[in-house]
Amino acid sequence: MKGPLFYSKILLFGEYGIIKDSKGLSIPYNFFKGALKSKNKDSEAARKSNASLRAFAEYLKDLQQKDQELVTFDLEALNKDVADGMYFDSSIPQGYGVGSSGALVAAVYDKYAIEKITVLENLTREKLLKLKAIFGKMESFFHGKSSGLDPLNSYLSLPILINSQDNIESTSIPSQNLDGKGAVFLLDSGSTGETAPMVHLFMEQMKHEGFRAMLKDQFIKHTDACVEDFINGNVKSLFGNLKQLSHVVLDNFKPMIPVEFHKLWKQGIDTNDYYLKLCGSGGGGYILGFTEDINKAKKALKGYNLEVVYNF
Fold first, then answer.
1. Phi and psi angles of residue 302, each rounded to the nearest 5 degrees, phi first
2. What is the Cα–Cα distance from 292 to 235, expressed in whole angstroms?
3. Are residues 17 and 112 in the same domain?
4. Are 211 and 304 members of one domain?
5. Taking a C-beta distance cutoff of 8 angstroms, is the pair 135, 53 a contact?
6. Is 176 inside a domain boundary?
7. Has residue 219 been placed in a domain?
8. Above 90 in pLDDT, residue 53?
9. The dihedral of CA 156, 219, 288, 172: what is its sign?
10. Does the structure show a pLDDT above 70 at 163?
């Protein structure tokens, strides 16, 4: 048995903001992928994954009992496959903000959900929201609380535009210019980050009026502008808004940025060689970078591992 492939994702814009109805834009990233397998199941990684799937199957049984109208699974088949040693064979790094648990959730839904919503259907907003709700409940097993966007992106393998929490749609983004100097890149922080503690930290900050005002008047304002600019291909305006967004994140989300990157973050804003932002919840994993000249950025970030994901 070799299941279909599910890819990682990159939330280009909207981290934290989408909790409070900012716009967001998420794209599939095909460099990393995963699939459910039952061959070669004797490795340490396969055994670890199988144990996690076993616990996940129990969680899904409880979820189904609580809310049969939302989703039902072929639990008998799932439990049999798990007992036979099934695991999720994945190249998606965990704790890096590129959707490792999202791809797993999408794979399990695809294989075991009864009366599943398929990618081939006419995906109305209602269907997208139902999928997002199902995936949010499923992925909560891994994160404590999930928007459901990561699995949705992985399942559909399409860019997703988030207008607000109850208004999402699949979208198209400008075709890449592979000869272009502008780029979106991933910067490896060299350490993993955990989503749950970072989200908890954010929710604690949200109790303060000043933080809430900053989020609404600055963070969400610049995030929304970046989403509009990116989708419409307004590169010049995009980089102006990115600079503002990078500044707001450095000033107000410092705990989510690994300490050793604070200086590098500011250097980008000061020189305009690149702008950094959080990739997912932060705290480690990947940092997302944008540059109008990838060669300049590579020079400025010499010694760091850069992975280009999109060219302007």
1. -55, 135
2. 9
3. yes
4. yes
5. no
6. no
7. yes
8. yes
9. positive
10. yes
Residue 43 CB contacts under 8 Å (≥ 6 apart), including other chains? none
Whether residue 73 is found in the same domain as residue 144: yes
Contact 7, 283 (CB under 8 A): no
Among the listed residues 269, 267, 278, the one whose alpha carbon sits nearest the alpha carbon of residue 301 = 267
- Distances, alpha carbon 174 to alpha carbons 145, 234, 235, in Å: 32, 10, 11
Residue-range definition of the domain harbouring residue 116 = 6-170
Could you tell me the two tokens for 5? 């492939």
What is the rounded distance in angstroms from the CA atom of residue 128 to the CA atom of residue 126? 6
Verify that 31 and 142 share a domain, yes or no.
Answer: yes
165 & 196 share domain? no
Q: What is the CATH number of the domain that holds 135?
A: 3.30.230
Q: Looking at residue 302, which CATH number applies to its domain?
A: 3.30.70.890
Q: How far apart are CA 18 and CA 233, in angstroms?
A: 22
Structure letter (DSSP) for residue 274: -
User: Is residue 24 a part of any domain in this protein?
Assistant: yes
Token pair of 138 as six digits: 């499923």
Band of residue 178 on the pLDDT scale cut at 50, 70, 90: confident
Cα 52 to its chain centre, rounded Å, is: 20
Domain count, the chain: 2
Q: To which H or E segment does residue 35 belong?
A: strand 24-37
Q: Domain boundary at 126, 147, 170, which?
A: 170
The model's pLDDT over 86-107, given as tens digits with 9 standing for 90+, comes to: 999 999 998 888 888 999 999 9
Distance from C-alpha of 276 to C-alpha of 290, rounded to nearest angstrom: 7
Helices (H), the chain: 44-66, 75-83, 100-112, 125-143, 149-156, 195-205, 209-214, 220-232, 235-252, 262-271, 294-300
Q: How many CB atoms lie within 10 A of CB 190?
A: 12
CA-CA-CA-CA torsion for 229, 235, 237, 243, nearest 10 degrees? 100
In a domain, 162, yes or no: yes
- pLDDT tens column, 104-117: 999 999 999 999 99
